[in-house]
Amino acid sequence: MKKINIIPLVMGFCLCINIALSSDKPQWAQSGVCQEPDCAVGEASLKEGEMSALARALKELRLSLGVNIQAEYNENTDNSGETKADSHLKLYTSMQNLGYKILDKYQDNSRIYIKIQYDPNKKVIQNEVIPEFDTIKSLEKLCKDNQLDGYYCVSLGRKYQNGENGLAKNIDFALKYFDKGCKMGTLEGCLFAGKISDSARKSKEYFTKACDGGLGSACFEQSLLEDEITDKRDLLIKGCSGKDALSCAFAGEIYQKGLAHVQTNTSLANTYYSKSCLLDKNGDGCVLLWQSQQDWQEIQKLCDTNNAKACAITGDENNNIDLLEKSAMLDSALGYYFLARAKDSTQKMMLLEKSCALGLNGDFTKGCEELGDMYQTDDVQKVQYYSKACNTLFYEESACEKLYEIDPSQCQNEEICLKIKKQKELQQAQANEQAKREQEELRSYKVKTKSHSQLSRIGAFIEMGMPVLRPNLPQLMKESSSKVGFNLKVGFEIRGKNPKFSPFVAPYMGYTRITLMDDDELEELDAPYYYNGDGMNVGMFNVGSYIGVRMGTLRAYGIIDYLVPVSSLSIDNPIDNMLGYGFGVMLDIGLRIGFQYISYDVSYYGGRVRREWYGDGGFELDRSQTYKSKNNAFMVFIGIGI
């Protein structure tokens, strides 16, 4: 059974419950987003008071406008000689001399919400426009005052980071001022410090502090540094709660695809997409929301606002290379991937490399998998790219399967790799079970056919012998002397494998020629004077079989033999058929030498022999009836067998 982590389910459930139970709370207070232009929302606990909610709203407004208007700074010195700013100055400087008006307020049992809008006609000090600080010295003075917001330190750090106001770029100085701003409580300072720190450990500490302080974008950045997919998932959900649009979009994809040990939940996914879209009306959350609703016109509109994902989807849907190139120029992993599929092979690898690099910190890693596919004979490169496509939150399952086939130890995505491992183990268990059944069936077959297996060897033989027979045909002649004939047999045998003792059966067919009467005996029958003197010779076709046992090189067997005439040489053949039973022994050393005795029941024609004085002058028997007699034959033979 798949193990389900209950944490994200509870979070998602709570999100839905919170929305459901807050129907009386204004939408702007629920979402922290207002629809009016140049608008911001701030909130604070009742204990913190309305001024704290206002200060936070002003801070959000300041960041959204991107302004850098500074107020005059009047120093006050207390009895100890320490320079401090009075409460009016603190509020004055934190508001950055922004004019504003309060649009709405809301208060429940625990919190205060204020919605304000920028109004340049309502400055705190109604005088001439306060110019920007034109010297770094002013910022440095403000940064030194620990009673003020750390915003000034962060502003100074940004100037060093970007090389503004005549300063040379200096990342070390930038980090110094970001760090101080972070320590003074300005979460943006923690975020910026984490982004430029060359220590992954320190970056994680900075992001964690900012994320815990409620800065959603810091939670997103922290998720990129986590190894465990469940930690990534939880940070994205937390980032969405901190009003980071991209975190909400990614959280929606997690629930849409059923990733990171959560059940697929399309409804909850759309809830996250909607919140992301509220936070950034031109962001990826809107693209994913319209894509789930198959609203291609809205996606086209987002592409017109330079949303890279929207251009990639629209370009692929309409086979529009221009839109795919636009998406790639906007650094879309999806755009580079679609462009690689549309371009010729000479550019494919370069485009896939860009798609892979961009997608690792995003939600698309198919480019990494296809890069691995291109290295058909290089398993090292395959493992490198399949690992990138597999060991991440937004993994490609097919990449994990390919990676597992090459090197299971490199498949480290706990969710999918464990699934693949179980599938492989199940397949192996089924294969083992099948092999076991086949072995048992084979063993059973061997037991059942053990006796038959002794008859499983097939051979062939040919034998040539000299039968000795004293014909006994009383209705034809009174007595006869012994005659020597010729016999040739060919056949095959089925014999056991045990060379010491095994049964065998050997059917055969052959040709036998015997002399029934010599010249003297023919004369007694009043044969014509011109008879050629060869006697009465009969050719017969015979079939039969040996059935016996083999004992080493010695064989003993019974014989059944049946003969029918096929020709006579000089006169009509008196034999109708012969059926014999007997026995034999032989020595088989490849060359066969043996002796046989057979007793035949002979059916023959008798009666008066009539002389023919016309034609060829032969004898013609009276075939009006047949007679029976016993005839014994002895034969020695020689042959070969395989």
UniProtKB/TrEMBL annotation:
Q: Which GO terms describe its biological process?
A: response to antibiotic
Its recorded reaction(s) are:
a beta-lactam + H2O = a substituted beta-amino acid
- Record localization: Secreted
Which keywords belong to this entry? Antibiotic resistance, Coiled coil, Disulfide bond, Hydrolase, Repeat, Secreted, TPR repeat
What is this enzyme's EC?
Answer: 3.5.2.6
Recorded GO MF terms: beta-lactamase activity
Name the enzyme's class: hydrolase
Q: Which family does it belong to?
A: Belongs to the hcp beta-lactamase family.
Name of the featured protein? Beta-lactamase
The gene that this protein is the product of is: hcpH
